[in-house]
Design brief:
Number of helices: 13
Mean pLDDT: 95
Distance between the termini: 51 Å
Largest sheet: 6 strands, parallel
CATH topology of the largest domain: UDP-N-acetylmuramoyl-L-alanine:D-glutamate ligase
Shape: globular
Order of helices and strands: HEHEHEHEEHEHEEHHEEHEHEHEHEH
Helix content: 25-40%
CATH class of the largest domain: Alpha Beta
CATH superfamily of the largest domain: Mur-like, catalytic domain
Number of domains: 3
Radius of gyration: 21 Å
Length: 376
Amino acid sequence: MLGLARSGKAAAAALERRGVEVIGADRELGNDADPSLLDGAEVLVKSPGVPRDAPLVVGAERHGVPIWSEVELGFRLLQPRLVGVTGTNGKTTTAELLGVMLEAPVAGNVGRALTELDGEIDPGTLVVCELSSFQLEDVHELACEVAVLLNLEPDHLDRYASFDDYRAAKLRIFERAHTKVVPKGSGLEGVEFSADDSLPAEPRIRGAHNRENAAAATAAAHALGISEEQIAEALRSFPGVPHRLELVRELNGVRYVNDSKATNVAAALRALAAYEDEQVHLILGGSRKGEDFTPLAAAIGPNVRSVHLIGETADELAAAIPRGRRDGDLATALAAVDARPGDVVLLSPACASYDQFRDFEERGEEFRRLVQNLSA
Protein backbone atom coordinates (compact mmCIF):
# COMPACT_ATOMS: atom_id res chain seq x y z
CA MET A 1 0.00 0.00 0.00
CA LEU A 2 1.82 3.10 -1.25
CA GLY A 3 0.47 6.27 0.34
CA LEU A 4 -1.00 6.11 3.83
CA ALA A 5 -3.42 9.02 3.86
CA ARG A 6 -7.20 8.56 3.97
CA SER A 7 -7.66 6.32 0.94
CA GLY A 8 -4.56 4.24 1.71
CA LYS A 9 -5.67 3.57 5.28
CA ALA A 10 -9.19 2.68 4.15
CA ALA A 11 -7.87 0.31 1.47
CA ALA A 12 -5.49 -1.37 3.91
CA ALA A 13 -8.27 -1.86 6.46
CA ALA A 14 -10.57 -3.41 3.84
CA LEU A 15 -7.87 -5.88 2.84
CA GLU A 16 -6.89 -6.73 6.41
CA ARG A 17 -10.53 -7.52 7.23
CA ARG A 18 -10.21 -10.23 4.58
CA GLY A 19 -7.03 -11.64 6.05
CA VAL A 20 -4.76 -10.14 3.40
CA GLU A 21 -1.27 -9.18 4.54
CA VAL A 22 -0.65 -5.50 3.82
CA ILE A 23 2.71 -3.74 3.81
CA GLY A 24 2.35 0.02 4.06
CA ALA A 25 4.77 2.56 2.61
CA ASP A 26 4.26 6.28 2.82
CA ARG A 27 4.92 8.29 -0.32
CA GLU A 28 7.32 10.53 1.63
CA LEU A 29 9.82 7.67 1.42
CA GLY A 30 10.70 9.03 -2.02
CA ASN A 31 14.05 7.96 -3.38
CA ASP A 32 14.89 6.21 -0.12
CA ALA A 33 12.11 3.63 -0.61
CA ASP A 34 13.38 0.11 -0.01
CA PRO A 35 12.76 -1.93 -3.19
CA SER A 36 12.62 -5.08 -1.05
CA LEU A 37 9.14 -3.92 0.03
CA LEU A 38 7.97 -5.35 -3.30
CA ASP A 39 9.38 -8.82 -2.59
CA GLY A 40 6.48 -11.27 -2.78
CA ALA A 41 3.94 -8.52 -3.44
CA GLU A 42 0.91 -9.60 -5.49
CA VAL A 43 -0.24 -6.05 -6.19
CA LEU A 44 0.77 -2.45 -5.44
CA VAL A 45 -2.18 -0.23 -4.48
CA LYS A 46 -1.18 3.38 -4.85
CA SER A 47 -2.84 6.50 -3.51
CA PRO A 48 -3.79 9.13 -6.13
CA GLY A 49 -1.24 11.60 -4.83
CA VAL A 50 1.63 9.25 -5.68
CA PRO A 51 3.07 10.01 -9.15
CA ARG A 52 3.90 7.34 -11.68
CA ASP A 53 7.62 8.09 -11.41
CA ALA A 54 7.79 7.28 -7.68
CA PRO A 55 10.55 4.68 -7.13
CA LEU A 56 8.27 1.93 -5.82
CA VAL A 57 5.87 2.43 -8.74
CA VAL A 58 8.72 2.25 -11.24
CA GLY A 59 10.02 -0.84 -9.43
CA ALA A 60 6.61 -2.51 -9.54
CA GLU A 61 6.36 -1.90 -13.28
CA ARG A 62 9.85 -3.28 -13.81
CA HIS A 63 9.06 -6.48 -11.88
CA GLY A 64 5.59 -7.02 -13.33
CA VAL A 65 3.70 -6.26 -10.11
CA PRO A 66 0.18 -5.04 -11.00
CA ILE A 67 -0.53 -1.42 -9.98
CA TRP A 68 -4.06 -0.55 -8.86
CA SER A 69 -5.64 2.66 -7.69
CA GLU A 70 -7.70 2.59 -4.50
CA VAL A 71 -10.92 2.85 -6.54
CA GLU A 72 -9.92 -0.22 -8.57
CA LEU A 73 -9.49 -2.15 -5.33
CA GLY A 74 -12.78 -0.79 -3.99
CA PHE A 75 -14.63 -1.79 -7.14
CA ARG A 76 -13.32 -5.34 -6.95
CA LEU A 77 -14.01 -5.74 -3.23
CA LEU A 78 -17.40 -4.03 -2.99
CA GLN A 79 -18.86 -4.88 -6.44
CA PRO A 80 -21.08 -1.78 -6.56
CA ARG A 81 -23.18 -0.41 -9.40
CA LEU A 82 -20.93 2.54 -10.06
CA VAL A 83 -21.96 5.98 -11.33
CA GLY A 84 -18.63 7.65 -12.13
CA VAL A 85 -18.09 11.40 -12.47
CA THR A 86 -14.93 13.01 -13.85
CA GLY A 87 -13.89 16.27 -15.48
CA THR A 88 -11.52 19.13 -14.87
CA ASN A 89 -14.02 21.16 -12.87
CA GLY A 90 -17.35 20.51 -11.19
CA LYS A 91 -16.78 16.87 -10.18
CA THR A 92 -17.65 17.18 -6.50
CA THR A 93 -20.69 19.40 -7.03
CA THR A 94 -22.07 17.04 -9.68
CA ALA A 95 -21.30 13.90 -7.70
CA GLU A 96 -22.94 15.27 -4.54
CA LEU A 97 -25.98 16.46 -6.50
CA LEU A 98 -26.26 13.02 -8.11
CA GLY A 99 -26.05 11.46 -4.65
CA VAL A 100 -29.11 13.46 -3.65
CA MET A 101 -30.97 12.63 -6.87
CA LEU A 102 -30.23 8.90 -6.56
CA GLU A 103 -30.38 8.73 -2.75
CA ALA A 104 -27.03 6.96 -3.01
CA PRO A 105 -23.73 7.18 -1.11
CA VAL A 106 -20.99 9.35 -2.62
CA ALA A 107 -17.33 8.35 -2.49
CA GLY A 108 -14.08 8.78 -4.38
CA ASN A 109 -11.79 11.72 -5.00
CA VAL A 110 -13.18 14.12 -2.40
CA GLY A 111 -14.71 12.97 0.85
CA ARG A 112 -14.92 9.25 1.59
CA ALA A 113 -12.66 6.77 -0.13
CA LEU A 114 -14.57 4.06 -1.98
CA THR A 115 -13.09 1.38 0.29
CA GLU A 116 -14.45 3.25 3.33
CA LEU A 117 -17.86 1.89 2.30
CA ASP A 118 -16.60 -1.65 2.92
CA GLY A 119 -18.96 -3.35 5.35
CA GLU A 120 -21.63 -0.67 4.90
CA ILE A 121 -23.07 -1.62 1.51
CA ASP A 122 -24.05 -4.84 -0.21
CA PRO A 123 -22.84 -5.90 -3.67
CA GLY A 124 -24.95 -4.26 -6.34
CA THR A 125 -25.54 -1.08 -4.32
CA LEU A 126 -25.66 2.09 -6.41
CA VAL A 127 -22.68 4.31 -5.53
CA VAL A 128 -21.71 7.69 -6.98
CA CYS A 129 -17.94 7.91 -7.32
CA GLU A 130 -15.96 11.04 -8.13
CA LEU A 131 -12.96 9.98 -10.19
CA SER A 132 -9.84 12.07 -10.75
CA SER A 133 -7.33 11.57 -13.53
CA PHE A 134 -4.85 10.36 -10.90
CA GLN A 135 -7.25 7.60 -9.84
CA LEU A 136 -8.17 6.65 -13.39
CA GLU A 137 -4.51 6.12 -14.35
CA ASP A 138 -4.56 2.76 -12.59
CA VAL A 139 -7.94 1.13 -13.29
CA HIS A 140 -8.21 -2.22 -15.03
CA GLU A 141 -11.61 -3.80 -14.32
CA LEU A 142 -13.49 -0.82 -12.88
CA ALA A 143 -16.68 -0.36 -14.90
CA CYS A 144 -19.29 2.36 -14.56
CA GLU A 145 -22.96 1.69 -15.16
CA VAL A 146 -23.11 5.40 -16.01
CA ALA A 147 -19.91 7.40 -16.66
CA VAL A 148 -20.08 11.22 -16.75
CA LEU A 149 -17.45 13.50 -18.27
CA LEU A 150 -18.16 17.13 -17.37
CA ASN A 151 -15.41 19.01 -19.23
CA LEU A 152 -11.75 18.84 -20.22
CA GLU A 153 -9.46 21.84 -19.82
CA PRO A 154 -5.73 22.20 -19.09
CA ASP A 155 -4.89 21.17 -15.52
CA HIS A 156 -2.25 19.24 -13.59
CA LEU A 157 0.36 20.08 -16.20
CA ASP A 158 2.90 19.92 -13.37
CA ARG A 159 2.29 16.15 -13.32
CA TYR A 160 1.43 15.29 -16.93
CA ALA A 161 3.83 15.75 -19.82
CA SER A 162 1.06 17.17 -22.00
CA PHE A 163 -2.65 17.95 -22.10
CA ASP A 164 -3.10 14.87 -24.29
CA ASP A 165 -1.73 12.67 -21.49
CA TYR A 166 -4.09 14.30 -18.99
CA ARG A 167 -7.03 13.87 -21.38
CA ALA A 168 -6.18 10.21 -21.96
CA ALA A 169 -6.26 9.54 -18.21
CA LYS A 170 -9.66 11.24 -17.87
CA LEU A 171 -11.18 9.33 -20.77
CA ARG A 172 -10.39 6.00 -19.13
CA ILE A 173 -13.66 6.47 -17.23
CA PHE A 174 -15.43 5.31 -20.42
CA GLU A 175 -13.59 2.00 -20.61
CA ARG A 176 -16.18 -0.71 -19.92
CA ALA A 177 -18.88 1.94 -19.19
CA HIS A 178 -22.47 0.95 -20.06
CA THR A 179 -23.81 4.51 -20.57
CA LYS A 180 -21.65 7.55 -21.34
CA VAL A 181 -22.75 11.12 -20.54
CA VAL A 182 -20.71 13.74 -22.41
CA PRO A 183 -20.69 17.51 -23.04
CA LYS A 184 -22.56 18.63 -26.12
CA GLY A 185 -20.13 19.40 -28.92
CA SER A 186 -17.28 17.40 -27.41
CA GLY A 187 -17.13 15.03 -30.36
CA LEU A 188 -17.44 12.10 -27.96
CA GLU A 189 -20.09 9.42 -28.32
CA GLY A 190 -22.76 9.30 -25.64
CA VAL A 191 -25.78 11.03 -24.10
CA GLU A 192 -25.12 14.76 -24.52
CA PHE A 193 -25.84 17.55 -22.04
CA SER A 194 -25.39 21.32 -21.98
CA ALA A 195 -26.21 24.33 -19.80
CA ASP A 196 -29.08 25.09 -22.22
CA ASP A 197 -30.90 21.84 -21.50
CA SER A 198 -34.46 21.97 -20.24
CA LEU A 199 -34.46 20.77 -16.61
CA PRO A 200 -37.33 19.59 -14.37
CA ALA A 201 -36.53 22.54 -12.07
CA GLU A 202 -34.01 25.35 -11.95
CA PRO A 203 -31.02 24.50 -9.73
CA ARG A 204 -30.56 26.35 -6.48
CA ILE A 205 -26.80 26.68 -6.99
CA ARG A 206 -25.49 29.78 -8.76
CA GLY A 207 -23.71 30.17 -12.10
CA ALA A 208 -23.94 28.91 -15.69
CA HIS A 209 -21.29 26.30 -14.91
CA ASN A 210 -23.47 24.90 -12.13
CA ARG A 211 -26.45 24.75 -14.46
CA GLU A 212 -24.20 22.67 -16.74
CA ASN A 213 -23.30 20.44 -13.77
CA ALA A 214 -27.01 20.10 -13.01
CA ALA A 215 -27.72 19.16 -16.63
CA ALA A 216 -25.05 16.44 -16.49
CA ALA A 217 -26.46 15.05 -13.23
CA THR A 218 -29.97 15.12 -14.69
CA ALA A 219 -28.86 13.22 -17.80
CA ALA A 220 -27.20 10.57 -15.63
CA ALA A 221 -30.26 10.28 -13.39
CA HIS A 222 -32.53 9.91 -16.42
CA ALA A 223 -30.29 7.09 -17.68
CA LEU A 224 -30.87 5.31 -14.36
CA GLY A 225 -34.64 5.70 -14.52
CA ILE A 226 -35.01 8.28 -11.74
CA SER A 227 -38.34 10.11 -11.78
CA GLU A 228 -38.69 13.75 -12.85
CA GLU A 229 -40.17 14.58 -9.44
CA GLN A 230 -37.16 13.19 -7.57
CA ILE A 231 -34.72 14.99 -9.88
CA ALA A 232 -36.62 18.27 -9.55
CA GLU A 233 -36.65 18.10 -5.76
CA ALA A 234 -32.87 17.56 -5.70
CA LEU A 235 -32.28 20.50 -8.06
CA ARG A 236 -34.41 22.80 -5.91
CA SER A 237 -32.95 21.74 -2.56
CA PHE A 238 -29.24 21.06 -3.18
CA PRO A 239 -27.29 23.98 -1.63
CA GLY A 240 -23.91 23.29 -3.18
CA VAL A 241 -20.59 22.18 -1.73
CA PRO A 242 -18.20 24.08 0.57
CA HIS A 243 -15.34 25.99 -1.10
CA ARG A 244 -17.25 26.28 -4.40
CA LEU A 245 -18.82 29.75 -4.70
CA GLU A 246 -19.72 29.40 -1.03
CA LEU A 247 -21.25 32.54 0.48
CA VAL A 248 -19.38 32.82 3.77
CA ARG A 249 -20.84 36.03 5.11
CA GLU A 250 -22.55 39.29 4.26
CA LEU A 251 -21.18 42.19 6.28
CA ASN A 252 -22.20 45.83 5.79
CA GLY A 253 -23.75 44.86 2.47
CA VAL A 254 -20.56 43.18 1.20
CA ARG A 255 -20.71 39.48 0.30
CA TYR A 256 -17.64 37.32 0.91
CA VAL A 257 -17.47 34.26 -1.37
CA ASN A 258 -15.16 31.29 -0.85
CA ASP A 259 -14.26 29.60 -4.14
CA SER A 260 -11.01 28.06 -2.91
CA LYS A 261 -11.62 24.93 -5.02
CA ALA A 262 -10.93 27.06 -8.11
CA THR A 263 -7.43 25.60 -8.39
CA ASN A 264 -7.05 26.26 -12.12
CA VAL A 265 -7.70 29.07 -14.57
CA ALA A 266 -10.82 27.47 -16.06
CA ALA A 267 -12.50 27.30 -12.65
CA ALA A 268 -11.69 30.94 -11.88
CA LEU A 269 -13.14 31.95 -15.25
CA ARG A 270 -16.40 30.25 -14.28
CA ALA A 271 -16.48 32.16 -11.00
CA LEU A 272 -15.90 35.48 -12.78
CA ALA A 273 -18.74 34.66 -15.18
CA ALA A 274 -21.06 33.92 -12.25
CA TYR A 275 -20.49 37.45 -10.89
CA GLU A 276 -20.04 39.35 -14.15
CA ASP A 277 -22.94 41.69 -13.36
CA GLU A 278 -21.63 42.68 -9.93
CA GLN A 279 -18.73 44.68 -8.55
CA VAL A 280 -16.00 42.24 -7.55
CA HIS A 281 -12.77 42.33 -5.53
CA LEU A 282 -10.82 39.28 -6.69
CA ILE A 283 -8.20 37.34 -4.70
CA LEU A 284 -5.89 35.23 -6.88
CA GLY A 285 -2.77 33.15 -6.42
CA GLY A 286 -1.19 30.12 -4.83
CA SER A 287 1.17 27.38 -5.93
CA ARG A 288 2.17 26.70 -9.53
CA LYS A 289 0.52 24.17 -11.83
CA GLY A 290 2.16 25.23 -15.08
CA GLU A 291 -0.81 27.18 -16.46
CA ASP A 292 -0.93 30.25 -18.67
CA PHE A 293 -2.64 33.19 -16.92
CA THR A 294 -3.29 35.16 -20.13
CA PRO A 295 -6.92 33.95 -20.55
CA LEU A 296 -7.60 34.91 -16.94
CA ALA A 297 -6.21 38.40 -17.44
CA ALA A 298 -8.37 38.83 -20.55
CA ALA A 299 -11.51 37.85 -18.62
CA ILE A 300 -11.07 40.40 -15.84
CA GLY A 301 -13.56 43.05 -16.89
CA PRO A 302 -14.40 46.54 -15.64
CA ASN A 303 -16.70 45.08 -12.97
CA VAL A 304 -13.59 43.79 -11.14
CA ARG A 305 -12.75 46.78 -8.94
CA SER A 306 -9.53 45.35 -7.48
CA VAL A 307 -7.27 42.32 -7.85
CA HIS A 308 -5.23 41.01 -4.91
CA LEU A 309 -2.39 38.56 -5.54
CA ILE A 310 -1.10 36.04 -3.02
CA GLY A 311 1.27 33.10 -2.86
CA GLU A 312 4.18 31.98 -4.99
CA THR A 313 2.45 32.83 -8.28
CA ALA A 314 1.94 36.51 -7.32
CA ASP A 315 4.77 37.72 -9.57
CA GLU A 316 3.58 35.66 -12.56
CA LEU A 317 0.04 36.90 -12.08
CA ALA A 318 1.25 40.50 -11.75
CA ALA A 319 3.05 40.16 -15.08
CA ALA A 320 -0.23 39.11 -16.71
CA ILE A 321 -2.44 41.46 -14.66
CA PRO A 322 -0.46 44.69 -14.12
CA ARG A 323 -3.14 46.27 -11.96
CA GLY A 324 -2.97 43.38 -9.52
CA ARG A 325 -1.71 44.26 -6.05
CA ARG A 326 0.84 41.89 -4.47
CA ASP A 327 -0.54 41.24 -0.99
CA GLY A 328 1.30 38.03 -0.11
CA ASP A 329 -1.32 36.23 1.95
CA LEU A 330 -5.04 36.05 2.59
CA ALA A 331 -5.04 38.20 5.72
CA THR A 332 -3.20 41.02 3.95
CA ALA A 333 -5.43 40.76 0.90
CA LEU A 334 -8.62 41.00 2.94
CA ALA A 335 -7.25 43.95 4.90
CA ALA A 336 -6.46 45.73 1.63
CA VAL A 337 -9.92 45.34 0.11
CA ASP A 338 -11.89 48.59 -0.04
CA ALA A 339 -15.37 47.19 -0.59
CA ARG A 340 -18.66 49.07 -0.71
CA PRO A 341 -22.19 47.82 0.00
CA GLY A 342 -23.28 45.58 -2.87
CA ASP A 343 -19.72 44.47 -3.71
CA VAL A 344 -18.48 40.88 -3.74
CA VAL A 345 -15.12 39.83 -2.30
CA LEU A 346 -14.27 36.67 -4.22
CA LEU A 347 -11.53 34.19 -3.36
CA SER A 348 -11.11 32.26 -6.62
CA PRO A 349 -7.36 31.63 -6.75
CA ALA A 350 -6.86 29.93 -10.16
CA CYS A 351 -3.94 28.12 -8.49
CA ALA A 352 -3.28 25.21 -6.17
CA SER A 353 -2.76 25.86 -2.48
CA TYR A 354 0.35 23.91 -1.54
CA ASP A 355 2.63 26.93 -1.13
CA GLN A 356 0.83 28.17 1.99
CA PHE A 357 -1.75 25.51 2.89
CA ARG A 358 -2.18 21.77 3.20
CA ASP A 359 -4.88 21.80 0.51
CA PHE A 360 -7.65 23.94 -0.97
CA GLU A 361 -9.93 23.06 1.96
CA GLU A 362 -7.52 24.49 4.51
CA ARG A 363 -7.18 27.62 2.35
CA GLY A 364 -10.95 28.00 2.19
CA GLU A 365 -11.31 27.45 5.93
CA GLU A 366 -8.70 30.14 6.61
CA PHE A 367 -10.59 32.54 4.35
CA ARG A 368 -13.80 31.68 6.21
CA ARG A 369 -12.12 32.22 9.59
CA LEU A 370 -10.65 35.58 8.56
CA VAL A 371 -13.99 36.77 7.17
CA GLN A 372 -15.92 35.69 10.26
CA ASN A 373 -13.45 37.68 12.37
CA LEU A 374 -13.93 40.89 10.39
CA SER A 375 -15.40 43.66 12.46
CA ALA A 376 -18.43 45.65 11.38
